[in-house]
Amino acid sequence: MSKTFTKTTRLAAWFCLPLVSGMVAAQPAPMAGLRFIDHRQQPLTAQTLRGKPVLLHFVFTGCSSTCPPQIHELVAMRAALPASARAQLQLVSVTVDPLADTPQALARFAARLGADQPGWRFVTGAPAQVQQFTDRMAAFDLRRTPQPTPADHRTALWLYDASGALVQRYGGWPVDHARLVAEITQLAQARQTASGPRHPHNDIPHAAATTAAASLP
Q1: Which of 39, 20, 31 is nearest to 124 (CA)?
Q2: In what helix (H) or strand (E) does residue 12 lie, and over which residues does it extend?
Q3: Of 18, 126, 139, 151, which is the most buried if we count CB atoms within 10 A?
Q4: Residue 159 dihedral angles phi and psi, to the nearest 5°
Q5: How many CA atoms lie within 13 A of 60 on its CB side?
Q6: What is the Cα–Cα distance from 159 to 90, expressed in whole angstroms?
Q7: DSSP 176-210
Q8: d(CA 184, CA 157)
Q9: Which residues form the signal peptide (predicted)?
């Protein structure tokens, strides 16, 4: 087994919660125990994301720099996915400004950017819940900005497979269309076939050394 795969396997373990049976939870663990609401006023929890690939990032409606162009790029990336992969992917855009970003504000934001699409959820929640999640995800670099504002959030994109394991953390800007399309498509195909010893982690290149995930609780 390669050192890269071994390191990535350890990394994925940070994002899986053990069940009584010894299996792992089929959703991103950093969201465990938290409850959000999306721009359609539908609840979102870790359980909601069970069984499908998830691409997650952080935004806020008052952003005038990176958020709008990143979302436009993700709209284009989503459109480039094969229909089967597009149907499986769950895009989750989490606000870092829950006091301002009500579901109604997020709905207007999503509509203005052409992102009010099936399988894409702009989410907010109680400030304490959102802060707990941003802390778990290291959404802010507190070493550089000890008292961050919403504009200081990371632009990273986190991709999870259908089992809830972290596959990749991307720099996020500029959006790497080709790589995202290829890797999300592989995850969707692996979920559909789900046979034999092959695992999507064996096929997708990882950048474990560049991710903040290993520092998460």
Answers
A1: 39
A2: helix 3-13
A3: 139
A4: -110, 125
A5: 20
A6: 10
A7: -HHHHHHHHHHHHHHHHH--SS--GGGTS---GGG
A8: 12
A9: 1-26
- 133-168 residue pLDDT tens: 999 999 998 888 889 999 999 999 999 988 888 999
- The full DSSP string for 113-181 is TT---TTEEEEE--HHHHHHHHHHHT-S-TTT-SS--GGG----EEEE-TTS-EEEEE--SS--HHHHH
Under a CB-based contact definition with an 8 Å cutoff, are residues 176 and 187 in contact?
no
- The CATH fold of domain 50-193: Glutaredoxin (3.40.30)
Specify binding-site residues for Cu cation.
Answer: 63, 67, 153
pTM of the model: 0.77
Between CA 27 and CA 45 the distance in angstroms is 9
Residue numbers in the known binding site are: 63, 67, 153
Helices 67-80 & 177-193 angle (0-180, nearest 10)? 50
Calculate the dihedral angle through the C-alpha atoms of 161, 177, 134, 151, rounding to the nearest 10 degrees.
Answer: -170
Supply φ then ψ for residue 100, to 5 degrees. -90, -30
Q: Which SS3 state, helix, strand or coil, does residue 43 take?
A: strand
Domain ranges of the chain: 50-193
Q: Are the C-beta atoms of 94 and 136 separated by less than 8 Å?
A: no
